[in-house]
Amino acid sequence: MTDTAPDLSFSTLALPPALLQGVEALGYQDLTAIQAQSLPAILDGRDLIAQAPTGSGKTAAFGLGLLHRLDPGRIQTQALVLCPTRELADQVARQLRKLALGIPNLKVSVLCGGTPLAPQLASLATHDPQVVVGTPGRIQELLRKKALHLRGVRTLVLDEADRMLDMGFEEPIREIVGKTPKERQTLLFSATFPESIRTLGAAMLREPVEVTVEGAENRAAIEQWFYEVEPARKTPLLAALLLEFRPESCVVFCNMRRDTEEVVGSLEHYGFTALALHGDMEQRDRDEVLVRFANRSCSVLVASDVAARGLDVADLAAVVNYELPTDPDTYVHRIGRTGRAGKGGVALSLCAPREVGRAHAIEQHLGTTLRWQRATPLAGKAPNVRPAAMVTLRIDAGKTDKLRPGDIVGALTGEAGLPVAAIGKIDVFPTRSYVAIARGRANAALARLREGKIKGRRFRINRL
Predict the structure, then answer these.
(1) DSSP assignment of 287-339, as one string?
(2) Pairing status of strand 79-82 against strand 131-134
């Protein structure tokens, strides 16, 4: 399905005023390719299987669809969105709440592993949420405890289905789907279409409309360079390229989890502010890494594919393939994280001689000639490495202590004497809060905060 009506817009779609209010609040004007191709079918109640890259606008597409089918007056779970990671689930739920701005008393619950079970059980005992966004493992657990009921589900969404299968979630997904009504609408979104996805789709979807968005809009703004290098010289070459391009924020993709830690160690040795992100990390450590990368107190994130799923960082300047992926679709998905919203981005790929075959497969997949470049790996120390612009302070208090971002700003500008311009992003979690401070002011801010109080109380505060 590729043709769309030239005059299609949010206002010409069959959307009620309550949803148009959410669309307006989010500032959406023109439909993206995935929205134009999928929304008419979704609003018509059809099942859908869609291939769409990250940043293509798919959340708004399925979000408007599931909200359109909701009966807000019915206190029953009517929509379920399954995501591979907690970060993606949080991101999806935030967007759904904004889209549902005009729908009163709508309960959207995020139910994911890596967070305490008791509060989720208590929330479900109060009354069923109309919309549930969660990870397969936790949803399966809540179903087995009979705390979550899916008999009223009208819309089921599988978001980033390929990664859920990569993470071993096929069995939980099949169990969860078995608890939903057969006459539901099912929407499956995937960045890649391996055979396993087609098999899953055939089992769960009824005469689906198929939509493919190649991600050409993303690629147009991305400058792609390939560098052939011996495996032992990859890290010095990576350091040299980071110095040459000087991206403010960069994700380096590794195929193996163990490589992420090794690359971070090497980059730190050169003086870069780098952190690893992989699937073996505890949830709290993972949260802190993502917070520090998003708030600009870490400039290089070295990640495995699965761990980086759900990562949402505005204005990501560069993506580096430390090793080429075996699947060309994964390459497209990786580089699609930069160059979003018409802004430029850079994708740099390090290619060992044994990876040349992968490069040829990517070239064939893209239908364009790859651009190869020569660069000299760094010898000795790295000159003029710029540390990350911000530093993160962790406050051991959060939402359960009734702490809000405004309280933290007040303490920093008041007792700590900081100008507002020196304060960056603030993240408040249930029991912890994180605030980014301009690097040159961080030590003074930490000392003053420890001496003073926030909201009239003293809390433990550390520099990460």
Answers:
(1) HHHHHHHHTTS-SEEEEEHHHHTT---TT--EEEESS--SSHHHHHHHHTTSS
(2) parallel
Residue 313 tokens, joined: 């960082």
Question: In terms of pTM, does the model score above 0.70?
Answer: no
Which is nearest to 141 in space by CA: 107, 113, 122, 174?
113
Per-residue pLDDT tens digits of the chain, which is 464 residues long: 433 444 577 878 878 888 988 888 777 877 888 899 999 999 999 999 998 766 678 899 999 999 999 998 899 999 999 998 887 888 899 899 999 989 988 999 999 987 788 999 999 999 899 999 999 999 999 999 999 999 999 999 999 898 888 778 889 999 999 999 999 999 999 887 778 888 888 899 999 999 988 654 444 468 899 999 999 999 999 999 999 888 888 999 998 888 999 999 999 999 899 999 988 888 888 889 989 998 999 999 999 877 676 566 656 889 999 999 988 888 888 887 786 555 568 899 999 999 999 999 999 888 888 989 889 998 878 778 888 889 999 999 998 898 988 888 888 887 667 888 888 899 998 899 999 999 988 998 888 888 888 888 889 999 98
Which residue from 317, 324, 337 is spatially nearest to 363, judged by alpha carbons? 324
* CB contact at 8 A, 258 and 264: no
